[in-house]
Amino acid sequence: MGWMHTARFLTTAAQLHHLPPINVPEIAFVGRSNAGKSTCINTLTQQKQLAYASKRPGRTQHINLFSLGKQGLTDAVLADLPGYGYAAVPKQDKIRWQRVMANYLVTRENLKGIVLLCDPRLGLTELDEVLLDVIRPRVQEGLKFLILLTKADKLTRVEGAKALSIAKLQAGGGEAKLFSALKKQGVDQVAQLLWDWSHEDPDADAIKQTSAETVEAVEPPSED
Questions:
Q1: Phi-psi category of 71—alpha, beta or left, where left has phi over 0 and alpha has psi -120 to 50?
Q2: Is the pLDDT of residue 208 over 70?
């Protein structure tokens, strides 16, 4: 989708209070340091160096924001959160970033959706499960959520189907998809999903609810 290719650097922040207030939908990419998060963002946006993809996972220590929108306008923002779980990162940095990320995921008002990247050969780790526990209340309230199984080209068709089935169960009301930057598998589908998340009619649920109440109100009572 051409919309994803409009991505451009917006700002970077080491602390939540450094993030600018934004009134457009924001979609966060999270995951372990070696899950292929930066590569995924670069593939979706067709820009080789938009997100920093280091040969040493875990080096990104900031929240990086990228704006999306044609003709210079911004109608959505991508947030690249620091990878977690990499052993070479000092313990104090791990703790600090766990707190920053948890606060971001719980309190960021314009957060519309979360993409959790996972290497399907490893499955969801303990840290991934912790993250799921943090965001579960917001997902239940309507926050969009996707488990993206990266490096799918390294799986056989049977392995991919099994991993996808497990991830759908773990998503807890969210979605799950296979993705391969190398084979471009899932790229168009994920791009379309992010577009849908960002351009969903905010009044749609209210309209549906009103319609349902109206139907219920005019429906004649059933005869015994």
A1: left
A2: no
pLDDT of residue 60: 58
**Of all residues in the chain, what percent carry a pLDDT higher than 90?**
60
What total number of domains does the chain contain?
A: 1
The closest alpha carbon to 35, from 99, 97, 128, 126, belongs to 128
Q: pTM of the full predicted structure? A: 0.85
On whether residue 224 sits in a domain, the answer given is no
Please, are residues 199 and 75 in contact by the beta-carbon 8 Å criterion? yes
Q: What CATH number did the domain enclosing 148 receive?
A: 3.40.50.300
What are 82's two structure tokens? 């620091």
Phi, psi of 80 (to 5 degrees): -100, 105
Predicted pLDDT of residue 214: 35
Flag whether 163 is in a domain. yes
Q: How many CB atoms lie within 10 A of CB 126?
A: 8
Which residue type sits at 142?
G
Please, what is the Cα angle at 105 between 60 and 127, to 5 degrees? 65
For residue 223, is it within any domain? no
Where are any strands of DSSP class E within 32-127?
63-68, 76-80, 111-118
Q: Which amino acid is at 190?
A: V
The reported pLDDT for the residue numbered 211 is 37
118 has which bridge partners?
149
Q: How many helices (H) and strands (E) does the chain have?
A: 6, 7
Asked if residue 167 has pLDDT above 60, the reply is yes
Least confident of 7-21, 62-76, 83-97, 179-193: 83-97
Domain range for 133: 4-218
